[in-house]
Design goal:
This protein is an alpha+beta fold. It has 12 helices and 11 strands.
Length: 303
């Protein structure tokens, strides 16, 4: 009998770091066992990751959705997301990885459109296919990153920071996101509140489940938090909270052998039956129905 999977492993950046503990850019083959030992194993990263699959075929599962991938695809994985690469062919490409402190992606005033458009969005992930011309631009930036990391000339960290930001701007343009920063200070203030709210959800979604809970931590009224959330994301604050809980439940259902009861307790529900009703209300599937359906579906994303 196969061993029960009851947890999702966490990979830390030092496991990949070769020259700099805060920033990695490398060909996938050069990562060696640090990368290939993770293939086929669902896991999380505690850092931001960009994969560029240049050649080869693979299945890439992000949270509970599996994508069929061929070539020239960028994947953006935020810390805490569960993903699993399953290669059916030899793959070639690059990995760019960095800590939040390196780029401060959570600072809404610094990279307003980048964070919401690539790493933080309603789909919780970004997948971008490159055409031949876009491939040349991305390749040039990646090679400059690798050169800076290898030669470590004076102020190379500043150069890497600029190259990473340029890479993200290019990717945002390709994806069609607007990366312009609004000069309106009121809008910037609301954006800052919204990002703090999203960060608080990441920290506390297993213990805090209501809009009032988060509004109190932000020192604003629940109705204002809902208005800001609707304005900036199109959905209410309550929906963001529920979506995050449901996403984590789906991650556990897809990637582990935990029962719905065990997952309920992990997510802070005292009553497993209430958790099952909650899950079905907002997904139209029971936990067991979701587990069965998600493990047999693949989303095509071929070139």
């Amino acid at each position: 009998m196969a061993e029960k999977r009851d947890n999702i492993g966490i990979v830390t950046l030092p496991e990949y770091a070769q020259a700099d503990p805060g920033f990695v850019v490398s060909g996938l083959c050069e990562l060696g066992n640090s990368f290939f030992d993770q293939i086929g194993v669902p896991h999380r990263h505690d850092f931001y990751t960009i994969y560029w699959i240049k050649r080869g075929k693979l299945l890439h599962t992000i949270d509970a959705t599996t994508y069929e991938v061929k070539k020239n695809t960028l994947f953006f994985i935020a810390p805490g997301q569960v993903h699993n690469l399953q290669a059916s062919d030899k793959i070639e490409g690059y990995m760019i990885a960095f800590r939040d402190a390196f780029m401060c992606l959570k600072d809404q005033t610094q990279v307003s459109g980048i964070n919401s458009g690539l790493f933080f969005n309603n789909q919780f992930s970004s997948i971008i296919h490159l055409n031949d011309e876009q491939e040349k631009d991305i390749e040039a930036v990646v090679r400059l990153m690798m050169k800076e990391l290898t030669t470590r000339e004076p102020e190379y960290e500043m150069a890497l920071h600029g190259l990473l930001r340029y890479f993200l701007v290019l990717a945002s343009r390709i994806k069609g996101e607007n990366v312009a920063i609004s000069p309106d200070q009121h809008a910037a203030h609301n954006s800052s509140i919204f990002l703090k709210f999203k960060n608080l959800i990441e920290e506390k979604y297993t213990i805090l489940k209501t809009v009032s809970d988060y509004a109190a931590l932000l020192h604003i009224k629940p109705v204002l938090l809902n208005e800001i959330s609707k304005q900036l994301s199109g959905i209410t604050a309550g929906e963001h909270i529920r979506n995050r809980v449901i996403l984590e439940a789906q991650r556990y259902l897809y990637n582990t052998d935990l029962t719905a009861k065990e997952i309920a307790y992990k997510l802070g529900f005292d009553d497993p039956h209430y958790f099952s009703r909650f899950f079905k209300k907002y997904t139209n599937q029971s936990p067991s129905e979701f587990k069965d359906a998600s493990r047999t579906s693949v989303s095509p994303f071929a070139s």
